[in-house]
Write a structure and sequence with these properties.
- This protein has 286 residues and is an all-alpha fold.
- Helices cover 68% and strands 0% of the residues.
- The chain has helices at residues 6-10, 17-41, 57-85, 95-131, 141-149, 151-157, 168-180, 190-204, 208-262.
- α3 (57-85) runs parallel beside α9 (208-262).
- The radius of gyration is 29 Å and the shape is rod-shaped.
Length: 286
């Protein structure tokens, strides 16, 4: 004897892509709005301005918490829209209906995550082209990274009243790559430090003692800046992963709630639609 409904469950899961795409677009749109608001009030997880270097660890943690909350809101909206728009194919309040609605919410979460990542990648590439140093030779990727991370330190290193001579971009790129190694476990190697001193003396016209003093100061500031950026990156990276995982949970339960409301379940008062009450006048005959 076959169990009733077994043939229906054996037919397999066929997702409804219309509600999934609608929920993913809603989640991605709300995420972009919330991130734009965060950038406006100073809670953005990244910034092209040099003032991010002066932010405290508490502000970085607050930015991560805002990222988690915005993910819960965005993915929750996307999951609910997906579950509410999905056509009911099973009996309400059944395990199959809940599993199907939750799976639709997870697929919408995955699609929204991909859309958000693509948009963020495009924005990052556009900003990197704007903020990258203008030069005919692009140089290695580390050169552009050093220009955006420790650009003020490189400016202090080669600050001089003398007019620049030769390929300034190549010199800055080389110095930036050397300074990036200052925060490593081994630190700046002695031969690299000696070369950086000679390079600074040649570019600025300082004597060896002044060039050595300036290089040591710049190396110390660069190491502090890179260490601070690394710690902030660890916090933001952990918060991003936590936001994605919690967003998946939110999308699942929101899609299940949307499916229950679709099937006639109890809807909160603030989400309900009140139908206007129409009254008909009756004439009472004597």
């Amino acid at each position: 004897m076959s169990e009733p409904g077994a043939s229906t469950r054996a037919a397999g899961f066929s997702p409804q892509w219309g509600p999934i795409v609608a929920g993913a677009l809603a989640a991605a749109a709300l995420a972009l709005v919330l991130h734009a608001f965060a950038a406006a009030v100073g809670l953005s997880i990244s910034s092209t301005a040099p003032t991010w270097r002066d932010t405290s660890f508490a502000l970085v943690l607050l930015s991560g918490l805002y990222l988690v909350l915005s993910a819960l809101a965005a993915y929750g909206l996307g999951g609910y829209v997906t579950g509410r728009l999905t056509s009911a194919r099973y009996a309400p309040d059944s395990d199959e209906a809940e599993l199907r609605d939750g799976a639709h919410g997870l697929i919408a979460w995955a699609l929204a995550t991909i859309l958000t990542a693509l948009i963020a990648l495009s924005a990052t590439q556009a900003l990197s082209r704007v903020t990258a140093p203008g030069s005919g030779n692009a140089g290695p990727a580390a050169s552009v990274g050093s220009e955006s991370l420790i650009a003020p330190e490189i400016d202090r290193l080669f600050r001089s009243e003398r007019p620049p001579q030769g390929d300034v971009a190549a010199t800055r790129a080389e110095a930036g790559r050397l300074l990036l190694s200052a925060s490593s476990h081994s630190g700046l190697q002695p031969d690299d430090r000696a070369w950086l001193i000679r390079l600074t003396a040649a570019r600025t016209g300082l004597n060896e003692a002044d060039a050595t003093r300036r290089v040591d100061q710049v190396v110390a500031r660069s190491s502090e800046t890179i260490t601070k950026a690394r710690r902030a990156g660890l916090v933001i990276g952990f918060m991003t992963g936590a936001a994605a995982l919690l967003g998946a949970v939110a999308a699942w339960f929101a899609a299940v709630a949307g499916g229950q409301h679709r099937d006639g379940g109890a809807v909160p008062a603030w989400m309900g639609h009140r139908r206007p009450v129409t009254t008909t006048s009756r004439t009472v005959l004597p």
